Amino acid sequence: MNTMEDLARQGYAMLPGVFTSEEVERITQRLFEDFAAYSGPAVLKSRDRIYGSRNLLATSTWLLELAQKPVLGDLLEAALGNDVGLVRGLFFDKPPDRSWSLPWHRDRTIAVRDNTLPTTSFKSPTRKAGIAHLEAPDELLANMLTLRIHLDAMTAENGPLAVIPGSHRLDIAKEEPPLVLQASAGDVLAMRPLLSHSSSMSKEGTTAHRRIVHLEFAATKQLPDGIEWNDFLPLRAT
């Protein structure tokens, strides 16, 4: 079964070996250089250690170049069309000494410039790390795709991602049993935002981190009701 068929049926597809170990090392190095140079709320720290970012595009717009790699760029255009753009970037680490878990959920919020405008399409305005967010309608989320770049191996030891295949179709009759995913460093997981997923705690005694670059893409720059993306970086220069 090919990647587009996996996305349509399961709501996700794992792309193995997209980045070499040398490329992963360089991506990680550049990210942490950017984090060290940035003092805004986009970078999340605890005990002077960086564990996440809710707004990577404030520090590292070069991440768009990663998605222009043919295997990823071709997938994005096949899934979302020629007007696809990068709208949000997140980074998180699951350090072995400060692990965490997430219950089953879908990624329903998007980053916008202003969440105080009147709207009948969006709801539940919030602010995260100083950025306005809104809960988006299902029709919009169905035309988005997330790429999760694994900077570390994802194993049973370091709190891996679990998914419910088919749940992105919002029809319980089409769902399959939950599945725990594994990945090697350099693999990329493509997933629909409406795919139900969760994450477990790392196992006690593990020394493994689980660092992820999470990039969200949308099919179009246009949003209903005059709402605007906080960022929209076209995949291809016009």
From TrEMBL:
<protein>
    <submittedName>
        <fullName>Phytanoyl-CoA dioxygenase</fullName>
    </submittedName>
</protein>
<dbReference type="Pfam" id="PF05721">
    <property type="entry name" value="PhyH"/>
</dbReference>
<keyword id="KW-0223">Dioxygenase</keyword>
<dbReference type="GO" id="GO:0016706">
    <property type="term" value="F:2-oxoglutarate-dependent dioxygenase activity"/>
</dbReference>
<dbReference type="GO" id="GO:0005506">
    <property type="term" value="F:iron ion binding"/>
</dbReference>
<keyword id="KW-0560">Oxidoreductase</keyword>
<dbReference type="InterPro" id="IPR008775">
    <property type="entry name" value="Phytyl_CoA_dOase-like"/>
</dbReference>
